[in-house]
Amino acid sequence: MYGVGSGGVTFKVDAGHTETFTSNYGGLIYVTGTASNPIEFKKEGTGANPLITAAKGLGSTDGIIIISGGDYITFDGIDVIENVLNASSVDCMEFGFLLAKANETNGPKNITIKNLSITLNNTYFTAVSGIYNSNINKDGQNITVTSNAGKTEDILIQNTSISNVTYGVYVNGNNFTYRENNILIKNNTINNFETAGIYAYYSDNTNIVGNTIENGVSNSYLTGMYNGWGTNYIVEKNTITNLASSATSGSHIVKGIQGDYSMSSTIIKNNIISNLTAPNATNIDAIDGIYTYGDNECYNNTVFLYCASGGIGFGSNAFYVSYTSAFSTKLRNNIFINASTYGRAVAYNRNGTTLSTYLSPSDYNLFYAGTPSANNLIFYDGTNSDQTLGDYKTRVATRDQNSYTGMVNFITGDSLRPIVADYKNGTTI
C-alpha cells in the first residue's frame, strides 16, 4: 500500500476470508495516514476472523505485516499465521507484525493492533516475535533515530492472542535521548513462548495492563514480563503462570516480572504470579516471582511459589531486590508466599544489608516461606537471615510493623484469589 485519499480508507474484510501472501512484502504498508485520514483494516460481519497466511521468508527479519514508518493505522480482527511450508530459519517469519522505522526521522505513530491472533513458529529461529518494534527498517537494516519524529509513539496492542514465539510483544527503543513513547499493551494472551511474554526496553510512558502470560518453556533464561531503561512504567493486573526452564546454571533463570533500571519509579501492582519452575537449576537464586532493580513501587501483588524439585544448591525467592544506593523499593499490601519444598525458600530477598533504600511506607505485606528453618526464610540479605516474622520486623523497623505471616488459602487454580479477603489495609486484593 503506497497512498491514501482524503478522509482515510477502511478495508472491510469478510469474516472467514482466508488468503496466503505470495510475496515476502505482501503485507508491507509504506504510507502514512493522518488523524483525519486514517487507515483501517477490519473484520466485517460475524464469524471467524479473516486469516492471512505468510509467504516464504527471505532472511532473518521477515514480517507478515510490516508497517514502515506509517502513522494512524489500525488492524482490527485480522489474524495472521505462519505458513506450515516455511520450515527453515530462512523461510520462516520472524515477526507477525513489524513496526519498522522508515528512516532516522520517521517512526510509526498512532498504530492500533487489536482483536486478532498471531501464530508463528519458533522452531527454526531463536528470535521470533508476535509484535516487534525496534530500530530497523523494513529490510532489517539498523536505524539510529536522530529526532523525536523518529520515535515509535502512541501504540495500542489490545486483546490479541499470541503463540509459538520467542517474544510475545517486543518493544525495543533507540537510546536515552529518543526513546519510544506512550505504549499501551492491554488484555492480551501470550502463551507458548521461549524468552519473554512482554519485553519493553528504552520506552517511556509504557503501560502493561491486564495481560495473561502463560506456558513459557525454555532451556535458558525465561521472563514473563520485562521492563527497563525508560520512564513511567506501569505494570498492573497481569497474570503470569506456568513458566519452566530446563537450564542447569545461571542465577535468576526464571522471573515472573522483572523491573529493571529506569529513570523514574516503576509501578508494579495487582499482578498475580504462580507456578515458576526450574527443576534442573543449581543456583541459590534460580527463581524470582518478582525481580526488581531500580526504583520500584509494588502494591497488591500476589506471588505463590511451590518448587518441589531442583538441582544441588537450588533456591527461590518470592520477591528479590537487586539495588544500589541510588535505587529505592516500596512494598505495600503484597502477598509473597514461597511454599517451595526443595532447596532454600525465601519470601523477601535483598542483595545487600543496606536498608535505607527500603522505604518506610512499606507495610501491610504478607511474607511466608513455610515452617521456619535455615532453608525457609522470611528475609535474607546475603549476610543476615530471618526465619521468623518477629526477627524480620526487628531488623527492618519501622517498616512492615503491620505485616504478618501465614499460608493463604486460595480459591482454585491460577487465579490466586484468597477465599476470605481479610488481608488488606483498606484495599481490595
Report on this model:
This protein is mostly beta strands. It has 2 domains: 1-209; 237-429. The chain has 1 helix and 32 strands. It has one helix at residues 389-396; strands at residues 9-14, 18-20, 28-29, 39-44, 51-53, 63-68, 71-76, 79-81, 95-100, 109-119, 129-133, 153-172, 180-186, 189-201, 203-209, 212-218, 222-228, 231-236, 239-245, 254-259, 266-269, 272-277, 287-293, 296-299, 302-305, 315-322, 329-332, 335-338, 344-350, 366-368, 376-380, 385-386. It has a 32-stranded mixed β-sheet that branches. The N and C termini lie far apart (48 Å). The relative contact order is 0.07. Residues 419-423 have low confidence and may be disordered.
Defining key terms:
mainly beta; 32 strands; single chain; 429 residues
For the termini, the CA-CA separation is 48 Å
User: In which range does the helix fraction lie?
Assistant: under 10%
What is the mean predicted local confidence, pLDDT? 93
**How many helices?**
1
Q: What is the percentage of strand-forming residues?
A: over 45%
The unreliable regions are 419-423
Radius of gyration: 23 Å
Q: Please give the largest β-sheet.
A: 32 strands, mixed
**Alpha-beta content class:** mainly beta
